[in-house]
Design goal:
By secondary structure, the chain is an alpha+beta fold. It has 15 helices and ten strands. The protein is elongated and about 75 Å long.
Length: about 350
C-alpha cells in the first residue's frame, strides 16, 4: 500500500539549527546602509539619490533575524536604461537586500492616484507612510507633504468594514449551499479583517496578514479569545458552521465597537449568547454619522447612539449593567428611559433579540 511520505522537521530543535541555515540579517546593519550600498552598487546611482529610506519590516521595527532588508532610493530623475522605477536585488551570504529605485515625481503621481482604495493602493500608501529616512530627510518631507493624508485612517477603517460585509455575505451563502468548511474559512477571515479595522482605528495601516498578531500585541491587545476561535476545529455540519459563524460575527462586532468608539473602557467580549441580548450575524459600516447594518446585505441605517447600544447590549447580563456600562464608557450617556427606547426599537427592527 502506498503511503504519503512524512518528513521530519526539527521544529523543536535548538535555534542553532535555524541559524545554520539563515544567518542573522540584522548584523548587516552594523554599518550604515548607505555605506553598504556603495560597496555593492554602482556609486553613480547613489550619487543621484535625494534620499535613502528603509521600507517594510526594518522601517516599522518588525524585522526578525531572517527578514529581507528593503531599501528605497529616491531619485530626482529617471536613470537611462532603467526608467523612473526599478529594483536591484543584492544577494549576500545567507541574506537578501532589495533596493527599490524610484523618482520623486513617480511617488507623487502614485499618491494622487491612491484616492480610490484597494489592497494594492493601501499597501503602497502604508509603505510610503511608514518609510524610515536614513538620509535626505528634507527631500522626503517634500514628497510626503505634497499628499493630503487627512482622513486616511478613517477611510481605511471604512474599507475594512466594507470587506466585512462581503465576507459575511459569502459565509452565509456558503452555509445555504451546504458548505460549512468554506463558510468557516470566510468566518475566520471576517475576524481577521475586523482586527485589521480595529488596528486602522488606532493609526496602524499595515495590511499584511503576517504582521497581524505582532501588531495587535504591540498595541496591548488581548488576542487569546480571538485566536481560540480562529484555530478551533473546522465545523463538519451546517449547524456547527452556523454556530461558528455566529461566534466569529460576535468577535467582529466587538472589534467594531472598539474601532468606531475609541477610548471605551470595557472588558473582553462575553461568551457568545450569554448577554442580555443577542444580535444577528451582522456587521456595521459607517457613512458620516450614520451606521449601516449589514445582515449580510444592507438592511437599515441607524444613529451613532443606536449603534453604540446595539454593540454594547450583547456584552451585558442585565439592563442595569448596560446602563452602568454606558455611564462609564462615554460622556453624556443616554438616560435609562432613552436606553430602553433604543433597545425596544432595535428589537422591533430585528437587530437584537432577547437572550433565552
Amino acid at each position: 500500500m502506498n503511503q504519503t511520505p512524512r518528513f521530519s522537521v526539527p521544529c523543536a530543535a535548538s535555534a542553532a539549527w535555524l541559524d545554520a541555515l539563515l544567518p542573522d540579517n540584522r548584523s548587516l546593519l552594523a554599518q550604515p546602509i548607505d555605506a553598504l550600498l556603495r560597496q555593492k552598487l554602482d556609486t553613480g546611482l547613489l550619487d543621484r539619490a535625494l534620499a535613502i529610506l528603509h521600507l517594510n519590516s526594518y522601517a516599522e521595527g518588525l524585522a526578525n533575524a531572517y527578514s529581507d532588508i528593503d531599501v528605497m532610493v529616491l531619485l530626482e530623475a529617471p536613470v537611462e536604461g532603467h526608467g523612473a522605477e526599478f529594483w536591484l536585488p543584492i544577494v549576500l551570504p545567507g541574506a537578501r537586500l532589495d533596493v527599490y529605485f524610484v523618482t520623486a515625481d513617480l511617488i507623487r503621481t502614485r499618491l494622487q492616484e491612491a484616492a480610490r482604495f484597494d489592497l494594492a493602493r493601501i499597501m503602497f500608501l502604508h509603505k510610503i507612510k511608514t518609510a524610515r529616512v536614513v538620509q535626505g530627510e528634507a527631500a522626503w518631507a517634500r514628497v510626503l507633504d505634497a499628499h493630503d493624508w487627512s482622513g486616511f485612517q478613517d477611510k481605511l477603517v471604512g474599507w475594512h468594514a466594507d470587506n466585512l460585509a462581503t465576507l459575511l455575505e459569502d459565509a452565509i451563502g456558503n452555509l445555504s449551499d451546504g458548505d460549512p468548511l468554506s463558510s468557516a474559512l470566510n468566518a475566520r477571515l471576517l475576524v481577521e479583517r475586523a482586527i485589521d479595522g480595529y488596528r486602522a482605528s488606532l493609526g496602524d495601516s499595515q495590511p499584511r496578514p503576517k504582521w497581524r498578531s505582532k501588531k495587535m500585541r504591540a498595541l496591548g491587545c488581548e488576542l487569546d479569545s480571538y485566536l481560540a476561535t480562529l484555530f478551533s476545529a473546522a465545523p463538519d455540519s451546517v449547524e456547527d458552521g452556523a454556530r461558528f459563524l455566529g461566534q466569529c460575527a460576535r468577535h467582529a462586532q466587538h472589534l467594531q465597537l472598539l474601532a468606531y468608539f475609541p477610548g471605551l473602557r470595557i472588558g473582553a467580549p462575553s461568551p457568545f449568547g450569554q448577554g442580555l441580548y443577542v444580535p444577528p450575524c451582522a456587521v456595521l459600516s459607517r457613512q458620516g454619522e450614520r451606521f449601516i447594518v449589514h445582515a449580510p446585505r444592507p438592511v437599515l441605517a441607524i444613529s451613532r447612539e443606536s449603534a453604540l447600544v446595539w454593540l454594547l447590549a450583547p456584552l451585558c447580563a442585565s439592563l442595569d449593567e448596560l446602563i452602568a456600562m454606558l455611564g462609564s464608557a462615554i460622556d453624556n450617556p443616554p438616560g435609562p428611559a432613552r436606553i430602553a427606547e433604543l433597545l425596544e426599537r432595535l428589537v422591533r427592527d430585528q437587530l437584537l433579540r432577547v437572550s433565552p
